[in-house]
Amino acid sequence: MKEMPFGSLNTWTVRSIVGTMIPILIILSILEMGSGLVLEHLEETYLGNPTLLVLVPVMIDMGGNLGAILSSRLSTRLHLGTLNFSLRDDVVQTNVVAIFALAATIFVIMGFAAWGIGELVIGGELSLGTLMTISVVSGMLLAVVAVVLSLTATFASYRLGLDPDDTTIPIVTNVCDILGVIILSVVAIAVL
Amino acid sequence: MSVLRDAAGIYKESIGILTVALGGGVFAGAVLGGEGMLEGFENYPGLLLLVPAFLATRGNVYGALGARISSGLHQGLIEPRFERDWRLVNAVTASFINGIFISVFIGFLAWGLMQILVWIGMRDHSAALIELIGITFIAGVLTSVVLIFGLLVLIFAGYRYGLDPDNLVGPIVTTLGDIFGVLFLFFAVITVDVVL
Asked: What is the DSSP secondary-structure string of A130-143?
């Protein structure tokens, strides 16, 4: 086992990782309970259109996935010292363009997947057009939220001197979890 | 246009694994809506309430571990293999502590919230504290083991194949978290059924 350096503040100690994350985890778990309450309420609301429930877990996941890809990349560039916080920065532009292209692809596939499962398993009460509209519109709105949150959270943790690995990703994934359910419900109510 | 060319590179690297994550999400939805879990939700009021928070711990604890390992690989601080390197050991140990602590805390939180819902008359009754904590503890321990080692194996393998681990972390955590999180939650419900 290699020697552990002494003295200066080290972000790779158990005490440092646990101490940084536990307060964040506690706060975010409390916020997630809000998401649990919303989901429970939505399940009753959505019983009339059960195919919408197929979208819920994926909708929650993908916001966090896209946000995690972006913040993880920004965080590494930050550690390497090759990141400028500007919308004109090439690294930022490249990552944002890629995220929107990925979101468009995934939420089109999800529209087809939800329709297929609805037709085969649930009873197909919603048309492909309706499900595709709900999936793509709510998905792209979620991608906008994920991009704005990733940039803001990475910048904030940089300014506050916190390690973005311990801060950015939990914030982005959890807010996307909660907002994913809310965005999906607002879009679904508007479309139906 | 180097921006578009570079963006296409990131797209190609991420689209496959995001599609796999999509499959994981659909699988999770199917298990959660399955007969066995629906029975669990009926038998243990408060279980449905904790599902989003429990599943979200993957992003919290293991996503941060993955990002840390990814940054460490980029910076040359750690090597892409299992060894008794103090940074790797510390990161893994801290993730176990974080993952198991927060699972138990979520069980407690759901129980507390259910007491309030019962008190204000929105629910008839709540599952016992020991039942909810028992379920989240069992599911939390099993999920930690699979997610931590699964994540490291896949990141190390991906890195050695020349893939940027930054693109792998989020989708790996979500896919493994969805599939094993829901399966171990179901397993924990069955175990608590038998033991308590």
From this structure: HHHHHHHHHHHHHH
User: How far lies B51's CA from each of A39, B29, B136, B158, in Å?
Assistant: 10, 12, 10, 30
Which residues of chain B lie closer than 8 angstroms to A95, CB-CB?
7, 10
Domain of residue B52, residue span: 2-195
Residue-wise pLDDT for B7-59, tens only, equals 898 899 889 888 988 888 877 777 776 667 777 877 898 888 888 788 777 77
pLDDT tens-digit map of B26-36: 777 777 766 67
Query: Quick count: other Cβ atoms within 10 Å of Cβ A150?
Result: 29
- Cα dihedral angle (B186, A185, B126, B135), rounded to 10 degrees? 20
Number of domains in chain B: 1
Cross-chain Cβ contact A101/B68 below 8 Å: no
Note the Cα B177 to chain centre separation in Å: 4
Which residue does chain B place closest to A91, by CA atoms?
B3
Q: How many CB pairs under 8 A join A and B?
A: 231
Is it true that domain A20-44+52-191 has CATH number 2.40.30.170? no
